[in-house]
Amino acid sequence: MYYVQRAKPTEFEDLLLSYADMCYSVALALTRNPRQAQKLARQALTWVWRMRDSADGRPTIKQDLLRALREKFLLHYRQSPGPPRKAATPERMR
After folding, report:
1. CA gap 23, 44 in Å, rounded
2. Is 53 helix (H, G, I), strand (E, B) or coil?
3. Where are the domains of the chain?
4. Hey, what long-range contacts does 69-76 have (CB within 8 A, 24 or more apart)?
5. How far apart are CA 62 and CA 48, in angstroms?
6. Which of 4, 66, 74, 87 lies most in the core, judged by the most C-beta atoms within 10 Å?
7. Roughly what angle, to the nearest 10 degrees, separates helices 34-50 and 20-31?
């Protein structure tokens, strides 16, 4: 198990990229949309890369990636307008 604060930058980058497929798979399971999943995975990988120096005791990269995916997905889900709804017409009210 690699700890975030102990990895050198090149080792960290290699380790982070080794989780790219896992990120995409999890994002695709969450979004069910390939384009959205790619964007979500990219955001999570970028977030973990930027936070590499401020590890503050977080155990692993994998846990950070999964947490970032979940948070980014929930943020997107909360901000999305949702599926379009059909207006109630007199025929439907009967």
Report:
1. 8
2. coil
3. 1-56
4. 69/23, 69/26, 69/27, 69/30, 69/40, 69/41, 69/44, 72/40, 72/43, 72/44, 72/47, 73/27, 73/30, 73/31, 73/40, 76/36, 76/40
5. 10
6. 4
7. 130
Residue 30 CB partners (closer than 8 Å, separation 6+): 37, 40, 69, 73
Of these ranges, 2-6, 39-43, 54-58, 81-85, the one predicted with the greatest mean pLDDT is 39-43
Kindly list the distances between the CA atom of residue 47 and the CA atoms of 30, 83, 88, 94, in Å, as whole numbers in the listed order.
18, 28, 43, 52
Q: What is the pLDDT of residues 32-73, one digit of tens each?
A: 999 999 999 999 999 988 887 776 555 688 888 999 999 999
Regarding pTM above 0.85, the answer is no
Torsion of CA 63, 70, 32, 83, to 10 degrees: 180
Burial (CB count <10 Å: 0-12, 13-18, 19+), residue 38: middle
